[in-house]
Amino acid sequence: MVTGSVRASHGVFTPLMEKRMGALIDKAIIVLKALIVFLELIRMFY
């Protein structure tokens, strides 16, 4: 897992940082999904 290496290099994360990272990852996933849908739409029209 990526989180293991991050935790090792930065020491112990505070719960706040953990929560913030989780929110950031969730946002990244949402953006990626939106991008995929957008690309699918473009492929349909062209």
From TrEMBL:
Keywords: Membrane, Plasmid, Transmembrane, Transmembrane helix
Transmembrane segments: 24-42
Designated name of the protein: Uncharacterized protein
Species: Enterobacter ludwigii
